[in-house]
Amino acid sequence: MATVSAIVLLALLPADAAEPLATITVEAGAHERLDTPVCVAVPKGAEAWPPVNLREAGTGEAATLIACQVEAGDPPRLAFILPGKTPAGAARVFEVTPLDARLLASRAEVRKRDGGLDVIVHDKPVLRYHAARTELPEGVEEKFAHEAYIHPAWTPAGRVVTDDYPPDHKHQRGIWFSWTKTEFEGRHPDFWNLGDQTATIRFTEMGPTADGPVFASFEPHHEHLDTKAPGGPKVILKEQWAVRVWNAGGPDAGYFLWDLTSRQQCVADSPLRLPKYHYGGLGYRGNRAWLTEVAMKTSEGKGRKDGNESTARWLDLAGPLDGGQAGCLILIHPSNFRYPQPLRLNPKQPQICVAPSQGGDWEIKPGEEYVSHYRFVIHDGPMDDATAERLWRDFAEPPTVKIAANASVNPSAGAAASTSSAGPSDAAGATDAAKDKPLKICMLAGSDEYSGYESLSAFKKHLESAGRAVCTLVRGKDKAASLPGVEALTGCDVLLVFLRRNTLLPDQLRVVQDWCKAGKPVVGVRTASHAFQNWLEFDKEVLGGNYQGHYGHGPVAKVNLLEVSKDHPVLKGVQPFESAYSLYKNTGLADDVTLLATATADGHTEPVAWTRLHNGGRVFYTSLGGPKDFENPNFRRMLTNAIFWTAKREAE
């Protein structure tokens, strides 16, 4: 596909241009980048900045100016499009400078209209969101009326790649989100097949919207109702969408790029159970012109004939339309439940569904939130695999972005650094509102040799006593062949592993592997280094360890805190202590670990506590963790600090 650099302007800057307010460094990482959306948390003091743009450092007087846009939040984030091609392994440096008004000429806009809104980029329509029930086509019964969905979705050439009220399936509509086979309080509300009239989805309110030179966004709120509940319709789920349309791609590039995040919270007193079923979830209905000719392909090289009920990282549906080719590429984020997610590829209609219920029974419990992230690439022309892979990597494995304030211009700010990206909003760290909520911790407890379940049961009470944590304790056994309940991890914030030589069932192991692959917080205790017999690589790949057995039982080990790491948040309030358990042999740790503590016994010294990053997520491991360790206030303090640190929270 053709490409175009996103919103840049060549301008002659005076030689005495003002000092930059900050410097931003973008590291491409292992992959080449091309017109990639990125963002970074702004440093303290940035609220006093004037409107700003970026200029690429080292480009001389004819500097490349790049539009940027502030994203609301705490902290706020600065979003921009990394322009042009950035080779793998390369780093580019940009300076934050006062705004050149010429960069405001090209904008992404939300335009409100009766019954919903449109989003416009490059003066062309990108998508339409329906907040109200749409007018029914002739011959369509009232029971099929629907709202809270997107249609049309346009390509840059103006081709419509979605459909609404198709005669063969009148309930299908553009792009929407609904569950099909469910169980709730003895009833079976079907939010997908509206003709059954057992459930419905309605729009409730529009949250904040934003326009700007980099993106336009809107946040509609929905309710999923059981219409057959005694006493009248009952709300089961409250849902919030966050839709962000990037001012990237465009007519010359041949695609529009936009993100959809869905957050569904169960607000009922009973869980919404979702039995295994072949569809339900994110739905997409393509143009009815594709009934006679359409192509479907997935990231795994499968098509319409062999791709149904397979899993994938991305999928594309495309075909001939209005004298050319057009299609919709859906990118699936690694943090999504049961990633890579199962797919429903309809064999007769141009319709696809990302359907996590194919993976087996599950549920959304009261108070729990089910979150999923997708990126849509609405394109003219065919979509080749290499382009799809590049676009997926930009979404799932974005560049690293760091910012440092200029102390001479921001005397009160000092310097700040961040490593956020333009992925899902929660990937950049918790907001203050999220930090006020109790931290949800999933504890996998199955190390019988060290009384892991008993120790974690007491530790759970310790964590929950202050009201800042809620723990789910999943009980296993040494060398067990299954771990029932591990699915609870998907609704939590932090994973704590204290298992020993378990062989998990494939679906159970995938829950843990998907968590780690998505770069989510992980804490490992003692036998976590050999927790999974069918994933022994967990020790090296995730924890950064190198478990090689242990020394004999005997002398007490003296735990020493490294002087160089004394100011690390995990060691806050921790004093040297003793452990009565054998030392693990762990020399040869990963190069990127930050060692916090060692222990010495009988002339042997070994590392016993460290941190690292895995796929961008924080990891802590300690080889300590016997029953008496859990009774030691210094060990408990270190482990508590570590749990909150991995979640980017303060322990106190």
Can you describe this structure?
It is a single chain. The protein has 652 residues and is mostly beta strands. It has seven helices and 38 strands. Strands 14, 15, 16, 17, 18, 21, 23, 24 and 28 form a nine-stranded antiparallel β-sheet that branches. Strands 31-30-32-33-38-37-36-34-35 form a nine-stranded mixed β-sheet. The chain has a six-stranded antiparallel β-sheet with strand order 1-5-4-8-2-29, with no helix packed on it. The protein is globular, with a radius of gyration of 26 Å. Mean pLDDT is 89; it is low at 2-17, 414-418 and 426-434.
Short description:
This protein is mainly beta and 652 residues long. It starts with 7 loop residues before the first strand and ends in a 6-residue tail after the last helix.
